[in-house]
Amino acid sequence: MQNQPHPLLRLKQGVTQLSHLDLQNPTHATSVVLLFRLILAVIALIVSAFFPFTTFEKQVSVFPGQAPILAWLQRILVAPWTRYDAEHYQKIVNHGYHFADGTGAFHPFYPLLALPLAQLLGGNEALALLIVSTLATIALLCLFTRYVAETHGPEVAQPAAWLLLCMPPAFILLAPYTESTFLCLVVATFLALKRQRWWLAGLFGGLASLTRQQGLALILPLAWELFTELRAKKPRFWDIGALFLIPLGYGLFIIYRAFTLGDLTLLTHGQSPAQFLQTLLISPSHAKIITGERIAWPWEPLQAQIALLATKPTYYVAIDFLLGWLGVLILLKAMPIFTNAEKFYVSAIILLTTCYFIGDLNPAIAFPRHILIAFPLFIALARWTKGKVWFWMLLEVGFSFNFYLAGLYIRHGWVP
Q: 240 pLDDT exceeds 90?
């Protein structure tokens, strides 16, 4: 009998075949994303078959032939993804913003992209959101690989892109959430900065701030790069105007909230700078979804998490704690290898994430997802593990845990 190769060798040989794919190539990136989409569809189908959550899932069987074909396809491919924030984006696409349903906390660019698709699809908002996330993930892989190749070297680019796609909780890139759209705009901003396209960077940054609050963090890297170049007298002085596109994008949503949801009145009644900042960043209508959120010192959510794990441990608090703070530690350790622009962005994301206390039940809900948008994290992991067996092991473990978390999300057992 022929000797079988060591499992680690088989793993390396298998993933090496994937390394021949160029994720900067749109065709290759599309193939990989569609493969991941298929894997996630199988996971979603299996989990939702045993644990149907919505009324529609409970009414329509996963077995073919027991419902009209379109209803059955909706049941097995789309319905399992309508969880948590995805429900609110679906409401926004369907009927816009309302204070009473908490949708004011969710920024408009992602659902705006889905709106024309939903109309073309006969009002299928959930499918439209999934299509936008899929297309955004493809664009993200292409842009991220190109940016890393130009900034940190081509030998790091492909490993970093694979880690971005596989490490937990990256499944959220293909869910009806904003992460893929937001990260696509963020990386596009950094790529424009790299090429000194200031107004283009400001435009992408403004759209990012229309997608998530954290888009405001892009002001710092853009300001740094602009003023660095101004000292060398390279750009035109009026290029500084590109900086204002980022807060302008966010400001448009604030104005909309003020006149549509009544947030302007609430902004004027803030009792402290922290309360004013919280109302500015997150609509008070979010209290319809989660209560007890506030701006806090970074150590307050950490202390609350540790206290919960010591007294009333739950798996979801443990996941948020371990993945979130591990990501923060990796980012802090990796600061010396980041560019100055990346350092400013990463620092702002860490600060915005750790200063957000979301309530006593779980003070750091979505902590790992918020750290995920600090994309230099994957550049650091790729540089540290490049060309080593540790890379393949990290990819395998990350891949497995990522899809386990996807199952928890479909089970409605973990808020990503």
A: no
Residue 275 CA to residue 403 CA, distance in Å, equals: 37
User: In 153-295, which residue ranges form alpha helices assigned H by DSSP?
Assistant: 154-166, 179-194, 198-209, 219-231, 245-260, 263-267, 273-281
**Residue at 8 is within a domain:** no
User: In sequence order, which residues have a C-beta less than 8 Å from that of residue 368 and are 6 or more positions away?
Assistant: 168, 169, 319, 320, 323, 324, 327, 416
Q: What was the pLDDT predicted at 1?
A: 42
Average of per-residue pLDDT values in the chain = 87
Q: For residues 381 and 388, give the distance between their C-alpha atoms in angstroms, rounded to a whole number.
A: 12
Helix, strand, coil shares, percent, the chain, to 5 = 75, 0, 25
Which domain does 246 fall in, by range? Answer: 23-410
How many CA atoms, within 13 angstroms, populate the side-chain half-sphere of residue 14?
11
| Domains identified in the chain, total number | 1
Distance (Å, whole) CA 191 – CA 187: 6
**Spatial distance between the Cα atoms of 24 and 75, rounded to a whole number of angstroms:** 33
Give the C-alpha separation, 366 to 212, whole Å. Answer: 14
Q: Which residues share a beta bridge with 357?
A: 294
Is the CB of residue 198 less than 8 Å from the CB of residue 239?
yes
| Cα angle 42-48-54, degrees, rounded to a multiple of 5 | 135
> What does the pLDDT average to over 111-130?
95
Q: 351 with 295: CB under 8 angstroms? A: no
What amino acid occupies position 40?
L
Q: How many CB atoms lie within 10 A of CB 161?
A: 29
Q: How far apart are CA 194 and CA 188, in angstroms?
A: 10
Residue 208 domain flag = yes
Task: Look up residue 122 and give its DSSP letter.
Answer: T
